[in-house]
Amino acid sequence: MILDDCPIYGVDLFSDDVIRNPYPHYQAIRDLGPAVWLDKHSMWAITRHKDVREALDAHEIFISGKGVAANDLSNGNTPGNLLASDPPLHTHLRKVIYAPLHPRALAIAKPRIEASANALIDRLLERPGFDGMTDLAQFLPVSIVSEMIGLPETGRENMLAYAAAVFDLFGAQNQRAKEALPIILKMRNYLAEQATQEHVLTGGWISMLYDAAQQGLIRPEQVQTLMRDYLGPSLDTTIFATGNLIYLLAKNPNQWNKLRKEPNRIGNTINEAIRLESPIRCFTRVLSQDHQIDEVILLKGSRAIIFYASANRDERRWENPDQFDISRILTDHVGFGYGIHQCAGMQLARLEMRSILAAILKKVSKIEIMGEPSYAMNNVLRGLERLPIRFLA
Ligand code: HEM
Description:
Strand content: 5-15%
Bound molecules: protoporphyrin IX containing FE
Largest sheet: 6 strands, mixed
Number of helices: 18
Strand order of the largest sheet: 1-2-3-9-6-4
């Protein structure tokens, strides 16, 4: 079966309504078939857990080197960074990018992250109410991780706006993407003019890229390109994941109480929040050859959008997929991706989230929602903009 009689879904998956509540659409697409043509986006959607894992695993068929965005403009500007590359380049770049992100490197930052998380929760406990996003979820990424990246202090305050724009440009070419463009241009100018070897923090991730260039591991002009692998995904993803985690615990007091009784479930609780509300909804791939999924043939050169967030709620894989259940076995959720492009920063994200949650568990008896939370409108990221809550000791 090729395009003529394949299942088709005609909804714009980057519209405001879908961004607010994408889950019924993912379910509808999953029910239509393993590969469904998206009329509005002219690409295939892969949404079932099994097919998402298989596609991510088949990285020589579903390639990243022609970009992983859902629009031609971004993909045309794909600069050969880690996210948008294939082996052998990817294998080589991954070693360079991963150097400061592996557990041994992170062990140095761990005590500071934990102490900061503890002090933060103490301060928040004294307040009658606060915003779970700006006052809590943003804290570690903005105060510590942005320093670990090591951009010069002037201009660092724009990092959140830059990161959000990067993810808007990963989606369809809609109004949000248009508005993101000037921000991306500003980011590129800032990086070119300010993130020079003499201005970046010594020992930071970006200065390590300059070191790698000096050692001949990468070409000097690749430093600018590879910076984006740190800038795009390192802040907002974890911020949204942390906000989602806190909101889910506040909304599900039975799971919160279970976690209080069984604190050894912290790691699983974090994974369950990432499964249920996956902060990165999707990325795309291009087919390097004709490829058959069940009866559908995806032609060479076509683009497929892979929905991690849908696979993580696929009723073919998960029992009661829409329920927050911290006792689930979660070894194969795809919230951090899967295969060779699996998240290079997941140990850092987990360390931050674990430090926050451990501090909350130690000091807080109840998380109370104080008003209506609102979702951030981003093409690819899923998370809250506002989360009015308070902690009770
Ligand atoms: C909870 C937070 C996070 C989530 C949910 C997340 C999710 C993901 C996902 C789904 C991918 C797969 C991309 C693909 O399949 O093409 C990915 C890749 C990546 N992530 Fe994360 N991420 C998070 C935090 C971070 C952090 C803190 C960093 C720090 C720098 C980071 C750096 C990267 C990089 C460099 C890649 C590209 C890896 C490659 O292509 O080999 N991420 N992430």
